[in-house]
Amino acid sequence: MSDTSKTVKSESSKPGKVEKTGGVIEDQTTVAPADDPTAAPVSVVDPRLLVREEGFKGYLTEFKRKVKGGELGQIPVVIGLIVIWTIFQAKNDLFLSADNLSNISYFMSATGMLAIGLVFVLLLGEIDLSVGSVSGLASTLFAVFVVDHTMNPWLSLVLTIITGAGIGALHGWFFAKIGVPAFVVTLAGFLGWNGLMLWLLGSSGTINIPSDSGPVHLLGQSSFFMDQAIIGAYLLAGLAVVLTAVGNFGEQRRRRAAGVPFRPTAEILLRVGALAVASFLAASVLNNASGVSNALVIFLAALVIVDFVLRRTTYGRKVFAVGGGIEAARRAGINVPMVRITVFAISGGFAAVGGMFFAGQTASATLNAGGGNTLMLAIAAAVIGGTSLFGGRGTVWSALLGMLVIQSIQTGLDLLNMNTSIQYMITGGVLLGAVVIDSISRKSQKAAGRG
Question: I want to staple 112 with a disulfide (CB 3.0 to 4.6 A). Which of 66, 84, 147, 403 is the partner?
Fold first, then answer.
């Protein structure tokens, strides 16, 4: 076996070595920490470039390296979710019942849609304080279109989402072009759009929406495939497994043909198998209640689509690049203002979709839509799930994990008849813990020369 050397043109890096072992190209490059050029070089290893002939030991070594380097990923939130479920189940054996888990999956979807949009903004290292008000305004606009102007419900839905995206783009324009801090412009939006919502609702403060209106009926607690809920649940689980397998093997084939590192078949099969067990178990549990709700199906579909956009498209790479360093992104030829404007437009669009979810839950537009702690919970979900407040690091799946944590806390405390004040304090503590972990992780990565 021959070794081929390649030189990395950087003051802080040493030549790497490429080896081909067992069909997988191995690449190791030593890099000195950026803040200390005199420090000992640190080996940088791509997860696909493990010494796989070591089997499980190789993966364990890579896991330890990631933890020491501050690359915790979703580990803290998964552990936290297990602890939360264990505690509440010990306190009340109804917590992990099919009906309760079905309620958690349904009610987390509305705020979860807001959290998806916020992930984009947080990846830029910014914040959007207007999503709660925009979601409330969206539900109100839909009610006005359908009830007061007898407009087609589906056309009303499209106009509502376009309005939300337009509001977000307006915020992004003030931020990117005028230079108004995102915190200030979205705080102004938080107040202004909430005022417009109150004005549209009038003195009654409520507009009831016919429950048979297309989008409202769809986003109610009806199940996917309606009377065929059981078939629908297992169909979704099977579809998720098939798409995951096709995507992974397709990537393996492309990378193998290009002569670059790829995941071995055994690892792919293990990943797909784990997903299959989790998916069909979840489908079985939900089928024991009312099946998989349409709201959850749409929420999961949005996660898959947005994840593809962020990880597999040029636009997604631009978002991460701008979040990682504005000047570097600008010098790379990225239109930074346009990325910022579109990111806030996406946030506003998802806020409007979330508002429709709230309207579906109550079949009405009310003063409480998007109010209260909705904004804080959406931000908390994205951060608790693992998206960094400092920008450049995160995933849309953090919206799902974060909402699972938050909704589990709320539902568990409701089962225990705890006061709302307790819910706020616990959620606040969890959010603080997530930010502390994120900060420590960033420091660890810098110390390891990976920040």
Answer: 403
Residue 66, C-beta contacts closer than 8 angstroms, at least 6 positions apart: 72, 73
Which residues, other chains included, contact 356 with Cβ-Cβ below 8 Å and sequence gap of 6+? Answer: 138, 139, 142, 157, 160, 161, 215, 219
Q: Which residues, 6+ apart, have CB-to-CB distance to 112 below 8 Å?
A: 299, 354, 381, 399, 400, 403
Contacting residues for 123 by C-beta, under 8 A, at least 6 apart: 310, 319, 320, 323, 343, 387, 391, 392, 393, 394
* CA 82 to mean position of chain CA atoms: 19
The answer on pLDDT for 34 being more than 70 is: no
Looking at every residue in the chain, the average pLDDT score rounds to 80
Q: Model confidence over 392-414: pLDDT tens digits?
A: 778 888 888 889 888 888 888 88
- Cβ pair 399, 385 in contact under 8 A: yes
Q: Measure the N-to-C terminal CA separation of the chain; round to a whole number of Å.
A: 34
- Paired tokens of 442: 């960033």
Tokens read off for 25: 């190209």
Could you tell me if 373 and 132 are in contact, meaning their C-beta atoms sit under 8 angstroms apart? no
| Confidence band of 168 (pLDDT split at 50, 70, 90) | very high
User: Stretch 108-132: mean pLDDT, rounded?
Assistant: 92
Residue-wise pLDDT tens digits, 330-372: 998 999 999 999 999 999 999 999 999 998 888 888 888 777 7
